[in-house]
Automatic annotation (TrEMBL):
PROSITE patterns: ABC_TM1. This is Maltose/maltodextrin transport system permease protein. Belongs to the binding-protein-dependent transport system permease family. MalFG subfamily. Pfam families: BPD_transp_1, MalF_P2. The chain crosses the membrane at residues 34-55, 61-78, 85-105, 304-332, 344-364, 395-416, 450-471, 507-529. GO terms for biological process: maltodextrin transmembrane transport. CDD domains: TM_PBP2. Part of the ABC transporter complex MalEFGK involved in maltose/maltodextrin import. Probably responsible for the translocation of the substrate across the membrane. GO terms for cellular component: maltose transport complex. It is a multi-pass membrane protein. Keywords: Cell inner membrane, Cell membrane, Membrane, Sugar transport, Transmembrane, Transmembrane helix, Transport.
Length: 537
């Protein structure tokens, strides 16, 4: 009897028959099926609306990127042909948005003059300068607002000191008129009571968009009256006039300013004067060339780069030596209270790093710190830990090694458990001592699997911004440098000072240094991967 015959022989209500019978969809399932495509349509409309908003805001590149991302997402999740990509798409999209895009954007900024003085585009700077104006004080008029019925109002304008109005506006609905309104002589036009200040405040936004025209005025600039406040209308005199070639003419002296693609300013060729603010332009490799060719920048930069490498290398070396020594000592089975020692030695790693750093900042205080108090009592010296460059660097190494050795100790403790005890027994029979065991057995078997982790620790300390910022803030500073730099700065803290603090927020230069840091850290990561690959064989 085959399976089909056996199934057909079952009674209609048997469990086997119920298991193989296709059940009709339930109410909730039918509801989900009915709402599926409408919800998909709403999501598509929302995505298209967001893309359109980006495009209308002038962000064409952002809009194109969002459209590509949304299109790929809808295709992958609605098409059966891309079923396998449904599990990879979130990770790939996240990597592109949060890793690749910031990296490319930072690299792109490194090829520009982007800074606090060059934040805007050329078009926005030009528009900003054209909007600059002065009020023609001698032509300012006071005004009052009067209701004329039907939801319309008139403005009455006259001397600011008070008196009879000289001009009145036609009836206005005050709903955002954008066309100029010609004023009429006030004679013969009856006006009711002036509206109180509260009503003026209520109509303020409409009044701000209103332009009134004085009849009989030869100068268009003086004939146009604009809202100046809750009690005044008056003409505005522009500072600059737009030229057909993209330049600007200063009306006060007739000087012409043209956009300079090298400096990112509107500048006058005759006098060399520039207009603020500047705009963002591409400068090519100029930021990278400054690291090598500019002597005033190259000096502190190379010193900071060298100190960053030395700081990271010495931290890893000392932390590894101390951590490995403690792990070997704690692995000694005859040592009493091993767990107590292990717990106490692990505490620096358990306490949040920023708390330990701030505690050490107080301990190293030259006048009130406990460390100097002990040194003064024993040797009669009170070192200037924060003022002397060598002592400040020594202090950084002491604190960083204190924070880092427990990590190495834990790693070595785990690796020691993987060494066969037979090796030590054979070494004891051969008469070898503890130092020989460590040099011939322990160290060679530990260092190979530990090497990739040491490379990771080096990369971490290469970017250890928190320690520098909280303990020394990069101080003491180098003297007579073009860009402020500290002798205890590492590259990442130096980049932070350039980008956000001491040098006018030079984002372009900071982005170039950040790109260099990325290349160095990426190289260390590749070394790490190679070491891990070799360690696995």
């Amino acid at each position: 009897m085959n399976a089909t015959t056996a199934f057909s022989a079952q009674p209609a209500g048997s469990p086997l028959a119920r298991a193989y019978t296709v059940q009709p969809p339930g109410r909730a399932q039918r509801l989900l099926q009915a709402l599926y495509w409408p919800l998909v349509g709403l999501l598509m409309l929302a995505a298209l609306y967001l893309v359109m908003r980006l495009y209308l805001a002038g962000q064409t590149a952002w809009g194109l990127g969002a459209l590509t991302l949304f299109a790929a997402g809808f295709y992958i999740y609605l098409s059966k042909a891309a079923l396998a990509w449904r599990y990879l798409f979130p990770g790939v999209a996240g990597m592109l948005i949060f890793i690749a895009f910031p990296l490319l954007y930072t690299t792109q900024i490194g090829f520009t003059n982007y800074s606090s003085a060059h934040l805007l585009s050329q078009e926005r700077v030009r528009a900003y300068l054209l909007e600059q104006h002065d009020v023609v004080e001698e032509r300012v008029l006071g005004y009052s607002l009067h209701a004329v019925g039907g939801g319309e109002y008139r403005l009455a304008l006259g001397p600011r000191e008070g008196g009879a109005p000289q001009w009145v506006s036609p009836p206005l609905a005050l709903r955002g008129q954008t066309t100029p309104q010609a004023l009429l002589p006030a004679g013969g036009i009856s006006l009711g009571e002036a509206l109180p200040l509260r009503e003026l405040i209520r109509h303020r936004e409409a009044l701000q968009r209103l332009e009134l025209r004085l009849p009989g005025e030869s100068s268009p600039e003086l004939a146009s009256l604009r809202y100046l406040g809750l009690r005044e209308f008056g003409p505005l005199r522009a500072h600059y006039e737009a030229l057909a070639d993209g330049g600007l003419k200063r009306l006060s002296d007739g000087q012409v300013f043209q956009p300079d693609a090298q400096s990112g300013f509107f500048s006058a060729a005759a006098s060399g004067e520039t207009l603020q603010p500047g705009y963002k332009v591409s400068v090519g490799w100029r930021n990278y060339a400054r690291m090598v060719l500019d002597a005033e920048f190259r000096g502190p930069f190379l010193s900071i780069f060298s100190w960053t490498v030395i700081f990271s290398a010495l931290t890893v070396a000392f932390a590894t030596a101390i951590g490995m020594l403690l792990a070997v000592l704690l692995n000694w089975e005859d040592l009493r209270w091993r767990n107590t020692y292990r717990t106490l030695l692990f505490l620096p790693y358990a306490v949040p790093g920023f708390i330990s750093i701030l505690v050490f900042k107080g301990l190293f205080n030259q006048n009130f710190g406990e460390i100097n108090a002990i040194l003064d009592a024993l040797f009669g010296v009170k070192p200037a830990w924060f003022a002397d460059p060598l002592l400040a660097k020594t202090m950084l190494l002491i604190v960083n090694v204190w924070l880092g050795y427990p990590y190495i100790m834990i790693l070595c403790a785990g690796l020691l458990k993987s060494i066969p005890a037979d090796l030590y027994e054979a070494s004891a029979i051969a008469g070898a001592g503890p130092l020989t065991n460590f040099r011939r057995i322990t160290a060679p078997l530990i260092i190979k699997p530990l090497a990739p982790l040491l490379v990771s620790a080096f990369a971490f300390n290469f970017n250890n911004f928190v320690l520098i910022a909280l303990l020394t803030d990069g101080r003491p500073d180098y003297l007579s440098t073009k860009i402020p730099a500290g002798q205890t700065d590492i590259l990442v803290s130096y980049t932070y000072r350039i980008a956000f603090r001491d040098s006018g927020s030079d984002f372009g230069l900071a982005a170039a240094i950040s790109t260099l840091i990325f290349i160095l850290v990426a190289a260390m990561s590749l070394i790490n991967l190679r070491l891990m690959k070799k360690g696995g064989h």
